[in-house]
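For reference, the entry.
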Amino acid sequence: MELSRRAVFGVGGGLLASRPFAELARADAGSDKRLPPDLRQSLLDTMARLRVPGLAVAAVRRGEPVVIDALGFASLPFRVPADERTLFHMGSVGKHFTAALVVRLAASGRIALDDPIGKHLKDVPAAFAACPIRSLLSHTSGIPTYDDLPGMEGDRKVLRADFMKAIGALPLDFVPGDCWAYSNTGFVLLGRMVEDITGRTYRQAVTEELLRPVGLVEGRVDDAEAIIAGRAEPYVEENGEVRHGQQMEGDFSGWPDGGIILSARDAASWEIGLQKGAPVPIAQMIAPVMCSTGRSSGYGFAWFLDRMGGSAIHYHSGSVSGFIAFWLRLPAHGIGVAAMVNFDTDGARTVRRKAVFELAERLAPGSTCWSLTAIRDDDRSLTERTRKLISEGAKPGDASVFAPEIARLRNPKAFDQATGLEDTLNVESGRFALVERYDEPGGAHIRRYRATLPDGPIHYDVGYDATGRIFRIRSV
């Protein structure tokens, strides 16, 4: 499931020269902790074929950095190579920084996670005031996402009062706790709550409480209009042409729903901090939140939660105009891997998946879904119905297909945010196979499918209730 702070809202600039892509195979990041040579070359070749400008990768194993590397270009027109200090926007991966601040407030006794958000956020819209703080952290609040609202375009200044007025005109999508639907709004509200409680800006709180205590040097809350040394340029594709991504407004680029920029070096430092429980014990963020049906949402506080072969997996994707990122954590193996790309296309996602999952498999063979092989399918009709759903999409409110966690979502935007089915993928039946199955409480079970595509696999984790209706869909 590719979840972003915002949809790409436009492109600017002219056609970029194609010559730099031919030079990718010679680009050198200069890191002393490079990717394995064969994987590095394979990534460079894939980047050149798919015209992906730059990639940064960081990996940590049991508290020690093992890979800090960057490939390609931070700037195409100036042919500036990306290196381990180049800054990439993390998009929604940065939500867990906001969650960390909230968890720290709870640990200090200044809030309780079951408090209504209206107890601490002074100008919260009345319709949302009773939503528990933990429901905002877990996307189970029912607060609608602000994406696509008029006046919320990311290339213009949005004042706090205007934001609150715009979202306050919307009703809740569902009763808090009943469903799960990704909401950028919830994390903006959490960030403003942090400001109200601490008397500091979000930027100050992140810097002083999270970044500096673990020694991050380049990492920061973004300001797209500031002159920031080492920040990569964003790129998108339009009508087959690589173009500059439209610059975000400075304040918006650092909003609490995903406004962090990191280098490969600082991504490694942050993962080390997460593994050591500083500056926040991540254990408090990775307990799955249950819906009112008693089934798991597959999400904690700003982390998707899954398991493979019985071992826990934490992950999150992110995107803003011109950047995508992915963070994968395999706690049983003490491994965390992050990848950042300054390009927002399907080809860039292919490179990002390849970097993260192939590297994770090098560090811990058999630890990810990429190592799985097809198993005997105990319900081929269910598999075929699921394949058609992913290929053709669905409409909200179909209780014959979806369990209450999804069937209650009548707002098309909330439905899309919950399922990801707005982005259909035409998968042939012969290329869609069951690779894992496991049970969850309440008669539910999860089936993991592999869609085999020309540029690599995509995996779908689909949750079914006892009657075969779908209550959860995730893709990585």
Remarks:
- The chain is about 25% helix and 20% strand.
- The chain has two domains: 1-371, 372-475.
